[in-house]
Each structure stands twice: as structure tokens, then as C-alpha cells.
Amino acid sequence: MEWKTDWGLRGRMAFTMFLLFALYVVFVGVLTTYFGNFLFPLIMLGGFSLAQYFFSDKLALRSMGAREVSADEYPDLHRRIERLSQQADLPKPTVAVADTQVPNAFATGRNKKNATVAVTTGLLRSLDEDELDGVLAHELAHVKNRDVMVMTIASFLSTIAFFIVRWGWLFSGDNRQGAPVIVAILVSLLVWVISFLLIRALSRYREYSADRGAALITGKPGALASALMTIDGRMDRVPEEDLREEAEMNAFFIIPIKAGFVGKIASTHPSTENRIERLRELEREMETA
């Protein structure tokens, strides 16, 4: 397989991280000016964020209710991931399964050596062999592109601002004036909104890149397109209770949970229709090459 570096994705990841870094330099500066004792909770939260970074894979699996499974439990799934990992020139990731009827998959981990690919039992029941390969290859493409790590770091920075928006008033100390607290919370809210939009924009692009990567790994763009249609159709039949349970892990899903206009604005994924259209175009290109 001839893997072509997606410089568009690399550039967007670098630009997003640069903007987030600049944003948080200003953020800390404003908080220090208006709220001198705010550095302690920031440092404390930064320590928690580092811990979360190193254990992000375990936290993600626990949030999804997924567990690591052995080759004895899911031999076919292990064989598929091992074969596709070889085709993608990747170490075989840890394999995990979540027992839920929501048909989905996600990848997590700081780098290629400690990556995990998780699928739901609903996904395994929904797809045929080629479609399943397409979805697994899509998740491996995320690992190959290293965008999981970038999204993890960016999300931690956003979490700091959200934490202050929610709990900043607790760290006012002996300061009895309300103005510094209000300023800190308003600035944190602005930083969180900007971070949120930057992360979502990057997330949508990285899905297109992972789709292209999956097509290169399997050589079958149509299989992933078919899987997207199958999953999208089945999502409409999943009970609302199950969708609410999985909502917190929407950022990892190959198919996002839809929530009307607000859901589209904050979507981590482009529309299924656009993804399928691009995959069909790629399929035609590969057939004529």
C-alpha cells in the first residue's frame, strides 16, 4: 500500500494547535490579571489533564462500557484487525468491544504503539465482511494519521476552560469583589466556545482523511460507503435511551448522533451524504487509474 501523507490534515492539525496555544496564553494572562490566585487551580487542573492524557485510552473505553477482548473471544475480529494493520503498516492495536446495539466504532490512544480500536456488538451484527473491513480500516487510518492524539490534547485544553466556566466561582479565595469572578468566567466561556468550534472543524476534516485512508488500506472505497449507509439507516432504529447513553462519546463515533440544527453546527463529522459522495468519486478514480 502506497500511503500518501495528508498534508491538508497535517497543516490543519498544526494550525489548530497553534491557535489553541495562542488562545490559552491570552487566557492565562487575562485570568492572572483579574484573578491573581487563579494559577493554582489551573496548574492543578493541568496536572489532571496530563494524567488523563496518559490514561485517555482506558478512560474512553470505560466511558463506552467497552472492554479489551482476546483472540479466543473474538477470533474473526482479531484476524481482521491484524490483517488490516499489516496492510496499513501499523502495529496491531488492542481490540475492545462494547456491548450495545448502537452500531459504531472508535479509536483511541496516544500513539501507534498503544492504540485501541473498539467496536460495538451492534456494529458487528449490522455489517457484512467488506463493510466491517471498511469501518475498521477507517479507525486504523485515524491511528496512522495521528489525529487521535491531537484531538485528545486539544480536548483537554478546552476542558480547562469549561471547568472554569462551571466551577470558577469556587476559586475566588478572599476576594470579595464580584467583578474579577465574572470576568474570569466570561473569558473562560469565550475561550471554550472558540476552542469548541476549532476542534469541531478539525474533527470534520479528519473524517474525510480517514475515509481516504480506509480506501487505500482496503482498496474498496465502496465498502466503506455501503457501511456508512447501513449504519446511518440503523441509527434511526436505535432507542433514544441508548443514544443518550452513548452521547458523551460522540466525538469518537464513525457516525455522529444527530441533534437538529445545533447538532449540525457542533458536529464532529461531516454529513453521511457528503462522505459517501467523496468515496464514490475516489472509487471511480481508482477504477480508472
From TrEMBL:
EC number: 3.4.24.-
InterPro entries for the chain: HtpX_protease (IPR050083), Pept_M48_protease_HtpX (IPR022919), Peptidase_M48 (IPR001915)
The entry's keywords: Cell membrane, Hydrolase, Membrane, Metal-binding, Metalloprotease, Protease, Transmembrane, Transmembrane helix, Zinc
Peptidase M48 domain sequence ranges: 75-282
Cofactor note: Binds 1 zinc ion per subunit.
Cofactors named for this entry: Zn(2+)
Residues that, per the record, bind Zn(2+): 138, 142, 207
Residues forming the catalytic site: 139
A biological process from GO: proteolysis
Subcellular location: Cell membrane
An example molecular function term from Gene Ontology annotations: zinc ion binding
GO cellular component, one term: plasma membrane
Residues passing through the membrane, by range: 12-32, 38-55, 148-169, 181-202
Family: Belongs to the peptidase M48B family.
Protein name: Protease HtpX homolog
